[in-house]
Design a protein that fits this description.
Elements: H1 2-16, H2 36-41, H3 50-75, H4 80-104, H5 108-123, H6 132-135, H7 145-151, E1 159-162, E2 166-169, H8 170-182, H9 184-191, H10 197-211, H11 214-221
Organism: marine metagenome
GO biological process, one term: intermembrane phospholipid transfer
Keywords: Signal
């Protein structure tokens, strides 16, 4: 059974391209090549590699249409309680790094609440499947290494569209690398010889996030 799960996880990586749209929201997702200008005009972005970015933008759009969107449409057919549980579980796995970044940003109160969320949801919430902490007033707050670097005064750098990850900049790309290399959950999985968990987690996260913006993306395409 374990070997089958490992093989399925590899299939997910190949066909869902890991972390695609992992951090996407309806505010920053643009899907047609005509929207490339919109992404840039909003903030007068420094874009010295525009030809590269246009090519990757088009590539990502194709990947979304052929793979991410169809997978997400199947995902949303799952029972709502199951989808909520999956989303809660994935969110809980992010809490250790959220906690670290809040500490690095000097957010002591938020860090303590995130630690409390992780403890409560990992125990009473059955490994994070149920968001018990939210009902206790411990609201989820997102922080990442890109935001931490910004807090420390690191500039954006130039605009870049990353293959499969979408629009970013040099600073946030560095933050993504730090996240990938320091995530304690992933590190534990690898140390236990269960490295297949890492791409499986990222693949499911990609589909979960993409499923939440199906209507917004369809509206942009239409």
């Amino acid at each position: 059974v374990k070997q089958l799960i490992k093989k399925l996880s590899l299939v997910i990586v190949i066909f869902l391209f890991s972390n695609y749209l992992y951090g996407a929201t309806s505010d920053n997702v643009k899907t047609e090549s005509s929207d490339f200008e919109t992404l840039k005009i909003e903030d007068e972005i420094y874009d010295p590699i525009e030809p590269f970015n246009r090519a990757i933008f088009s590539f990502n759009n194709t990947v979304d249409k052929l793979i991410a969107e169809p997978a997400s449409k199947q995902y949303i057919k799952l029972p709502s309680p199951l989808k909520t549980g999956i989303s809660n579980f994935l969110s809980n796995l992010r809490m250790p790094l959220v906690f670290v970044n809040q500490l690095l940003q000097g957010q002591g109160k938020n860090a303590s609440e995130s630690a409390g969320r992780f403890l409560v949801n990992s125990t009473i919430g059955v490994f994070g499947l149920v968001d018990v902490a939210d009902k206790m007033g411990l609201e989820e707050k997102e922080e990442d290494f890109g935001q931490t670097l910004a807090t420390w005064g690191v500039g954006d750098g130039f605009y870049i569209v990353l293959p499969l990850f979408g629009p970013s900049n040099v600073r946030d790309t560095a933050g993504m690398v730090l996240t990938a290399t320091t995530d304690p959950i992933n590190a534990y999985a690898v140390s236990e010889g269960e490295a297949w968990i890492v791409p499986l987690r990222r693949g499911v996260s990609a589909v979960d996030q993409r499923s939440k913006i199906i209507d917004e993306v369809n509206a942009l395409r239409n």
